Amino acid sequence: RLPALAAGQKAAAVNLGIFPDGDSAYASASPPQPSASIALVNNDRLGGIDAFLRPAPAPAQTAPAQPAVRLASAPQPVPATVQRTVAMFQPKLWLQLSSAQDADALASRFKRYKSQNPDLFSGIKPYVARTASGARLLVGPFRGASDAAIFAEDLQTIGINANNFTDSPADRIAPLLVE
């Protein structure tokens, strides 16, 4: 039945599971437009759904028209100056375990952390944030501050003071290669 429905009826059927009554015949194919005063009073979001459920009237039978030349409508050309949407930067929350001038020193430090506490670091991948002043050893990103706080507490129990680190567009964060 879905292909035979009008667009509004399809939307109601697919999204709300409401199919129009096939036995009913309605005079209007378009939904009534509420007046401004009714719109202010009526807070029912589905109030106009009945109008969409009405079956579309059958097209009137007319005598066949003389053949006419039909032109295929070509799609409108896309302007050359279409602006591309730039992905917005979404800052992520990390935990900084350590910092150093050299990223290689951070790799050996993470290996030491992991070898001393294999259960805590199981499945944890290290990252490095490189800046002009040095490098930071990071873990994460975390879904939220509470997740980061829980892991920071676990790190505190083994003597690692982790600090929250929120990245910026200028930060270059990459996985740290640990052998």
Strand content: 15-25%
CA gyration radius, whole angstroms: 32 Å
Biggest sheet architecture = 5 strands, antiparallel
Structural class of the secondary structure composition?
A: alpha+beta
| Total DSSP E strands | 5
String of helices and strands: HHHEHEEHEE
**How many DSSP H or I helices?**
5
Question: Helix proportion of residues, in percent?
Answer: 25-40%
Question: What's the arrangement of strands in the largest beta sheet?
Answer: 4-1-3-2-5
- Give the end-to-end Cα distance, rounded to a whole number of Å: 61 Å
Unreliable residue stretches: 25-30, 35-41
Write down the overall mean pLDDT: 76
Helix and strand topology:
Blueprint: H1 7-16, H2 36-41, H3 49-53, E1 93-100, H4 103-116, E2 126-131, E3 134-142, H5 145-157, E4 163-166, E5 172-175
Can you describe this structure?
It is a single chain. This protein has about 180 residues and is α+β, with helices and mostly antiparallel strands. The chain is built from 5 helices and 5 strands. It has a 5-stranded antiparallel beta sheet. Strand 2 and strand 3 form a beta hairpin. It is elongated. The model is unreliable at about 25-30 and about 35-40 (pLDDT under 50).
List keywords for this structure.
single chain; 179 residues; alpha+beta; 5-stranded antiparallel beta sheet; 5 helices; 5 strands; 27% helix
In short:
With 179 residues, the chain is of the alpha+beta class. Helices cover 27% and strands 17% of the residues.
